[in-house]
């Protein structure tokens, strides 16, 4: 599949929700606040006497709580001593308690992508209110179901938190027990992203840069944007460029020849023969298809990657259309086998093309690297386009 690099990047405003992350432990929640307090006190080296001095409860109530914690294996009393210690199970839960409290106190923030639903880093300098967006940005509608983000561990939240935030020295089993809650703001914000290329068909003649995109794993992505494009079907006359200086006098020359052929020169005769050949040639149709976003030309109507029949639209990149629909002389030769011709539009039709393009494909980054021939050779540059796939693909494909 071909991805055509656009002459002008398309700026897209993607909706996001700002959210605070809260880490929750089911084991701690099942203990209750007072049990957690007792566990916290013993974990920090306090004695029973210290707790009795601080807590305004009857001693028998505190003793009952201690017996409960002993019964579920979180604390133990030393034989022949009134000293109370945490068991290994209690130490593990005490460690989780410390991590949860520290993390939630920091109030870490993230973004919920309103199109993919994935959790992303919060970059305060890169998010905008609707009124702050640049004038060229194409706004995309929010696609997520917000209520789903009130459930524990929505989308990729747990994986994101574990990979982006330090959670002390918790082992894998302790981390597995944790749950993530998101508290999002109701007002949407936007991040601006750039579309640098669009999946396009292979052209017979292309006036746009192209690179190869592999589809093997891309098709497994679940988030899509619907892009509406226009394909022009153009019928042209092929005009001989050598006749251009004489076009205003062709009718006069033809009338003069009909009146008396001996009055016109050999050169005028040659011009009239060329004009007759052009006229006969243009009785045929010279059809091609033109994609104004990428500048590609096709002899036959192409099939677009990710083409989709349903009339849903997220983006219509009409403002980025290229105005020059006509192929140049060299491209006309490649298309129709005719040299020294220029095209002149005779008829034109427009077709709507809709593509359901995976989100990660649409926002792939295109970088250009240049390589030099071996030392001593003439200095020539070869451009290559490199497509870097963002997570979850973690792959790089070179053309």
Number of domains: 3
> Helical content, roughly?
25-40%
Low-confidence stretches: 212-221, 367-399
- What's the β-strand tally? 18
User: Structural class, from helix and strand content?
Assistant: alpha+beta
Overall pLDDT metric: 81
- What is the H-and-E element order? EHHHHEEHEEEEHHEEEEEHHEEHEHEEE
Shape verdict = rod-shaped
Relevant terms:
Arc Repressor Mutant, subunit A; 399 residues; single chain; eight-stranded mixed β-sheet; disordered C terminus; alpha+beta; 11 helices
Please describe what this structure looks like.
The chain has 399 residues and is an alpha+beta fold. The protein folds into three domains: 9-23 and 105-194, no CATH class; 26-98, Orthogonal Bundle (Arc Repressor Mutant, subunit A), CATH 1.10.10; 201-237 and 288-398, no CATH class. 27% of the residues lie in helices and 32% in strands. The strands form four sheets. Strands 1, 4, 5, 6, 7, 8, 9 and 11 form an eight-stranded mixed beta sheet that branches. Strands 10-14-13-12-15 form a five-stranded antiparallel beta sheet, with helices on both faces. Strands 16-17-18 form a three-stranded antiparallel beta sheet, with no helix packed on it. Helix 8 crosses helix 9. The longest helix has 19 residues, at 88-106. The termini are close together.
